[in-house]
Structure to design on (222 residues):
């Protein structure tokens, strides 16, 4: 039995200010650092103990992984396959600017079930899901029977779940994932199971800044 713990990075500048960031730099806010510390404390008491720690190399994910690595005494392994989706020309825009300046593209983006949708200059949804899913499969295959923590992004985790549980692939947006949350997938002889989704027990119920929830909910931005 292999346990994969998927951790969304703590609150970053773009989450608070309401603009899209894919591969660009966006550091953690003070609240994001607090969330990262809370995740580290939660994982320190995980049983069986976590043996491996992976993270997206993007700044916000790496900053979230740092206190986890210190607390668990692990070395963080960077994996490019865990990066957020590349938003291409949409990167750096607010939702409203996206809607006003690219209305046709915005209308296409709103069809969440369209897996062929591609951000100009960026990635296609299905290709992104495949990239993340194959990365998670690779990590799990590398460490059978062990406990693995992965620090990544909202879109990355949604895409990974869509790939791991293909029956839900066209409903990927329904996975509600808050900054600093923990999602637990178990791999065993009977296949894969989703043990916990968006677990925020360690955050005292403060999972998300509600000012931005209506704007960012069900989007790839993460």
């Amino acid at each position: 039995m292999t346990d994969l713990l998927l951790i969304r990075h703590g609150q970053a500048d773009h989450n608070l200010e309401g603009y899209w960031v894919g591969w660009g730099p966006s550091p953690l806010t003070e609240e994001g650092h607090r969330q990262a510390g809370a995740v580290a404390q939660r994982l320190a008491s995980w049983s069986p103990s976590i043996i491996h720690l992976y993270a997206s190399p993007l700044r916000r994910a790496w900053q979230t992984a740092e206190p986890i690595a210190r607390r668990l005494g692990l070395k963080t392994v960077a994996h490019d396959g865990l990066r957020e989706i590349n938003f291409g020309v949409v990167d750096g825009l607010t939702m409203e600017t996206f809607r006003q300046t690219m209305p046709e593209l915005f209308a296409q983006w709103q069809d969440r079930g369209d897996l062929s949708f591609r951000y100009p200059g960026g990635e296609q949804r299905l290709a992104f899901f495949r990239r993340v899913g194959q990365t998670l499969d690779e990590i799990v295959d590398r460490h059978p029977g062990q406990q693995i923590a992965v620090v990544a992004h909202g879109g990355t985790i949604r895409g990974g779940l869509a790939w791991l549980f293909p029956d839900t692939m066209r409903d990927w947006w329904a996975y509600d994932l808050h900054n600093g949350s923990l999602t637990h997938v178990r791999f065993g002889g009977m296949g894969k199971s989703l043990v916990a989704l968006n677990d925020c027990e360690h955050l005292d119920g403060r999972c998300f800044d509600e000012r931005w929830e209506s704007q960012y909910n069900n989007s790839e931005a993460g």
Observations:
- Helices lie at 13-17, 30-44, 59-72, 95-101, 103-110, 125-142, 154-164, 213-216.
- The longest helix spans residues 125-142.
- The mean pLDDT is 91.
